[in-house]
Amino acid sequence: MTTTLSERVSQSAFDGSMLRVVLLMDLHEGTQQRFFEAYEKLRNDIASVPGHISDQLCQSFENPSQWLITSEWESAPQYLAWVNSEHHAEQVRPLGACARSMRPLKFTVLRETGRGYDQAARPSTARLQSTPRLGAGIVRHALTFTVKPGSEKDVASILSSYASPAARVDDHTRLCRTSLFMHGNRVVRTVEVQGDLMAALRHVSEQPEVRAVEEAINPYLEQDRDLGDPESARMFFMRAAVPAVHHIAAPEPESAEVQRHAVFYPAKPGCGQALARFLAGQDEAAARRPESPVRSSSIFQRDDIVVRLIDVRGPLEADPETVYGISGPRKAAVLDRLTLPPGGRGRAAHHTMNLITDRRAPAQS
């Protein structure tokens, strides 16, 4: 069966579409006024963020503890640049302190209907997504953190030896795959979830075997955290989150010949988003070639941290230019301009991460 390139791209932050963000919150009892006042203080700051179009704060008329914030953005990269910043983490801390639970949802906009949608009043750069994206309902997410230099072997041993949590979360959500890599003292954990990502992450965090591992690595972390303090834990995982910004895959069944790898690209300051966009373009170009060894690629980016998770058929050295995203005239030079240290043809392989564990859920679980 032949598929078009657009059918293979199930996620992309780089198609220029407007973004609608929905934040569902359940507040602690008695914090409604404090939450409202905190929002009042920061809403004008949010309105001045590049790419921000509009914001709405809503309260359920059935349950006063349920709140909703919706915001519209010219494009996903502008929103992600703000939401992944340290400034944002500090901005929303007063809101988070009031919330029992928070569930963010992000949607690109395909169609608008009604008098309230006057395109003439919109920024000229804001546009609609042209066609629906296809996919198998898999959500991808990554976490990253650093450990104290010299502790890498101990951390790798801890992270590779825990018992896998139950894959089934509920009737609608399932943990499909967890892959964990290290590069130097940096740890990257990627997860693939079918269904509700936040429900899956909560499920995993509540499992005794996972909690034991998290406690065991605490002494080795460069950034202190207290998992017994909900606010400390929330801020740690907020800063550790690295969202997926692009995913492309060939339409073929899984094969033992295909192995999972991860590449860490150290972006120069301020170049993380441009680097992720460049790699997404390289992956789309490679997907046009049936002989490409890269069968799927997920790009995760936060600030200047860029990780590319790739499923590759055959050895990496068989086609290193495609594997490392530098295939084509002067593409290695482009990567070199965006990465630090230089990332030319001989250097990209030096950033291949070490696989610690790669776990798939059983077919029926």
UniProtKB/TrEMBL annotation:
Cite the SUPFAM superfamilies for this sequence. Dimeric alpha+beta barrel (SSF54909)
Please give the superkingdom of this protein's source.
Answer: Bacteria
Q: Name one Pfam family in it.
A: ABM
**Residue span(s) of domain ABM:** 19-110
Q: Which InterPro entries match?
A: ABM_dom, Dimeric_a/b-barrel, SchA_CurD-like
Q: What is this protein called?
A: ABM domain-containing protein
Q: Which organism is it from?
A: Streptomyces virginiae
| Taxonomic lineage | Bacteria, Bacillati, Actinomycetota, Actinomycetes, Kitasatosporales
